[in-house]
Amino acid sequence: MTEVQLNLVSKDRLRSMGSMEKIRFILDEVRGGNVVVLENGLTPGEEAKLIEITMTEISPDDFPGIEMESYPSDEGSSPNFLKKLLGGDGGLRTRLTVVGPANQVQTIHKDRDVIQTLVRAA
Amino acid sequence: MGLLSWLKKPTLSSWMDSFFGKQKASIGIYGPPNAGKTTLANRIVKDLAGEEMGPASPIPHETRRAMKRADLTVQSNGASLHLDIVDTPGIATKIDFEEFVTDFEMKDEEAKDRAKEATEGVIEAINWINDCDAVLLVMDSTKDPFNQANVTIIGNMEARKLPLLIVANKTDQDGASPQRIMDAFPQHPVVQTSALEGEGIEELYESMIHHFG
Questions:
Q1: What is the pLDDT of residue A122?
Q2: What CA–CA distance (Å, rounded) separates B32 from B147?
Q3: Model confidence over A50-104: pLDDT tens digits?
Q4: How many angstroms separate the CA atoms of B213 and B211, rounded?
Q5: In this structure, what DSSP letter does residue B194 have?
Q6: H/E element holding B184?
């Protein structure tokens, strides 16, 4: 039986990690063939950094990259003046994010509140 | 400073004037591969300067280096906006050289070279965001707007509180649904275009002046 490991990472665990630590953790898991589900996701800046570092690690015969899916931020859809004044990445609320190996994870549907993915064993 | 004026949303030009003393906007054209970014950049630069920026192609990652055209002026209804345009490579989270081989009949070496250059292009595009004052985010109206590149670019622009105009492109194609894009990102203005056919370009200029000027 072929199996795929899913690692569900709590927001408390994520909160204890710095940005680069998070990115390294995600890439190491994904390159090991695992799928990572982050309870409260990454900031937009961290997402961009993850893509950037992924690009440096892509190699034709080994690693084609990642499949990453996160929900759009809720900025604007539920404006909150105080939230915008308080720190963080512009006060945006980050949401659940799924990251997996590009050759194993395929997104079949995504909307504002639902991500449907197909995960295949390597 | 009074409370009302503090609450008033600043325009890009007033923001740039007050913080940097800049008199023109650097506008990045962003989006996933094959959304029509270079076709749009060519349309704009041809309109405003009579020349093209670079080659467009149906093969993904045709643009693998950011290209800048400086000192353009958009005019519409008596208003104008002075700007630089930066056409960026498409942003993706994966680049599989085998797709170039199977889908576009490239030879292995050519496909690997293109994939390598494409990864460098994505990095370049991400880093150009820091130099942009505003973004035209080009989406293919026939495709799912919740593409991760779109979500990440929008998130970054919102986090930086910089203006963003969504261009719902390829409206000339069967299955195009700009409404799907408007529904997906209701907090941002959307302009419908066919950069290929030159449709909606005047409306785009009006919106750029309105939102970036």
A1: 78
A2: 8
A3: 999 999 999 988 999 999 999 887 654 444 444 444 444 555 677 899 999 999 9
A4: 6
A5: B
A6: helix B178-184
pTM of structure: 0.88
Q: Torsion-angle region of residue B71: left (phi > 0), alpha (psi -120 to 50) or beta?
A: left
| Residues of A whose CB is below 8 A from B186 | 76-77
Nearest chain A residue to B112, by CA? A60
The H or E element spanning position B118 is helix B108-128
Report the side by side order of strands in the sheet with B190-192: B67-76, B79-87, B25-30, B134-140, B164-169, B190-192
A105 contacts in B (CB within 8 Å)? Answer: none
Residues 46-105 of A with CB under 8 A from B: 47-48, 51-52, 54-56, 58, 60, 64-73, 75-77, 89-90, 92, 102-103
Question: pLDDT tens for residues B194-208?
Answer: 999 999 999 999 999
- Tokens of residue B151, six digits: 């979500």
| Chain A residues within 8 A of B101 when measuring between CB atoms | none
Domains and CATH numbers, chain B: 10-212 (3.40.50.300)
| % of chain B beyond a pLDDT of 70 | 89
Q: What is the pLDDT of residues B109-130, one digit of tens each?
A: 999 999 999 999 999 999 999 9
pLDDT digits over B157-168, tens only?
A: 999 999 999 999
Amino acid at B160: R
DSSP state of B132: -
Sequence-separated (6 or more) residues with CB below 8 Å from residue B180? B141, B145
Across A2-27, b (16+ Cβ under 10 Å) vs e yields eeeeeeebeeeebeeeeeeebbebbb
pLDDT at B21 over 70: no
Q: Where are the alpha helices (DSSP H) in A58-94?
A: 81-85
